[in-house]
Records
---
Amino acid sequence: MGELVTEKHVRYILAAEKRKDDFESVVMEHLRMNGVYWGLTTLDLLGKLDTVDVNEFVSWVMSCQHESGGFSGNIGHDPHILYTLSAVQVLALFNKLDIIDVDKVTKYIVSLQNEDGSFSGDIWGEVDTRFSYIAISCLSILHCLDKINVEKAVKYILSCKNMDGGFGCTPGGESHAGQIFCCVGALAITGSLDLVDKDLLGWWLCERQVKSGGLNGRPEKLPDVCYSWWVLSSLIMIDRVHWINKEKLIKFILNCQVVLAELLSCDFESDTENGGISDRPDDAVDIFHTYFGVAGLSLLEYPGVKPIDPAYALPVDVVDRIFFK
Ligand code: GRG
């Protein structure tokens, strides 16, 4: 098993940030705010956040804020709750939360809560438990959780719970590890984890580990590095992480840095040359999987990677600064 090629991942992230016109940058243009959160959080977990220009990022984040208080994924795009959380997280990483007009952002999020306690993602009204998590996490970071109806928000999340112990995106929706992270994270932040059947959910989650050691997001699906985050963080929050094989998962994640070319000593450039992590071994790397691979290793206490908070998806020292400064 290889080791984490930290320096190369740092170089990959810094280079990805500068590229503007390759395929990955073009398709990600509208969600750059998420990409910036993934990249910068990875750098912080690897102890390299000081390699970037703080002012450049902070002023770009602020230029994505709209009159409504919400943030967009890039300049010239519409605001959405998905990018609003990433913007707040990026400012939290840089210890710059004090430059936010908290009332303005809070009003935007409060305006998205519906009568039944659910949240819409933006003015167009799509409802999803992802948006419940985002609203709760964001307001908690801004110390304004009391501005929404938390009781109704929790009741709505519980209405998305299934008989298998998992959660879907709306009532009756199929259980999926990504949605489970959102629901369990929101319940953790609101202090409502006692409402979860931890053994039933823990069983469903640990069944996500397949032969290769990787985790999938639902039954019969392929493993993907990103579920190292969605599944593992949920298992940690419900105190059942010892139900999976950690060593095998570490091996799976590390193998997603290696392409066959390198094993065969071919001369075209491999991903351990260039850095970055892919969804599964031998696939192309991207910033999303690089973040979730490193964040997964952080939850697995891999040496040299800073600890990450499983509910807030921010480094533990950043969360401590927000709540215990
Ligand atoms: C701060 C970490 C953090 C998250 C913010 C946006 C969000 C809140 C959570 C997203 C949760 C989610 C739904 C994740 C799943 C993403 C994913 C890889 C979906 C792929 O779904 P399919 O059906 O893939 O294409 P499978 O693996 O089921 O075949």
Note: The chain has a mean pLDDT of 94.
---
Amino acid sequence: ELFLRKGRIVAALRNSVMNGFKGFDVHYQPIVDCGLEQLIGAEALMRFSMISGEDTEVISPMEFIPLLEETGLIIPAGRYILDEAAKLCCEIQQYIPDFRININVSYVQIMHGNVERDILDVIKRYALKPDSICIEMTESGFMDMTPVFCKFRKALDENHISFVIDDFGTGYSSLNHIREMPLDIIKIDKCFIEHLGEDDFSDAFVKMVTELANTIGVHVCVEGVETDRQYAIIKKMGIYYIQGYFFDKPMCIESFEEKYI
Ligand code: C2E
Ligand code: CA
Ligand code: CA
């Protein structure tokens, strides 16, 4: 069953990529400045609906992103998301000049896709300031620090594009990465936020990472903030950016524009 389902989803993804990305969509989740309590940007999150005949099935990113990576389709699909997100960023900057957009990039795009060229292309196409784009990668994405990854990282730096380490704390050598890698933002994984105020380890972890980050001039973003209680704890910790259902869920472009412009 699983094998057949995987085959059906891969066929639908391939079909969509070849037909103008029909079925793909981008949702946007606000990122809020914790001190100012103001919208400063959004994370672009890929969505996919599988259309077969009359039926449409929404597939979770947890299911389709690994399939896009396995098949290399993440390269064209990632390029599509990048373009859509940069377009929205350009529109919103007419109203919020410093608005930024965070985009997830996977290792496959770096190894085989020349994603840095794609990023520079959209910056030019939409006349964005380079620091309007933040690239998010999970630690597993750059575990090896290969020459190709280092070249990518250097290209971002030279072009003043921010680099965010995503899902921080879930990798196997997180602290080592902070030391080795030039970073702009550390995004602490939501599993540590879920138990804030309930579990000493989570409290101590978030506090320790924030203090360490502040010492080395790196900003911290926390994601997965859902409750008043979590928000109150975070506000006291010197954290810069917040993302989570507490403010808003990821939403389609129309809702985002209606609500935030
Ligand atoms: P991520 O980059 O860690 O994205 C954050 C995920 O947390 C999103 O799940 C978002 O909907 C969810 N989230 C946000 N706030 C809350 C909250 O308060 N509580 C809880 N429980 N969850 C929250 P989503 O959209 O299902 O995306 C899952 C993953 O798929 C992303 O995790 C990212 O790794 C990957 N992904 C999504 N879009 C792209 C893309 O364009 N390219 C690549 N390479 N990966 C993507
Ligand atoms: Ca992310
Ligand atoms: Ca994350």
Note: The pocket of C2E (ligand 1) is lined by residues 29, 45-46, 61-62, 65, 78, 81, 104-106, 136, 166-167, 190, 223-226, 243-245, 250 (CB under 6 Å).
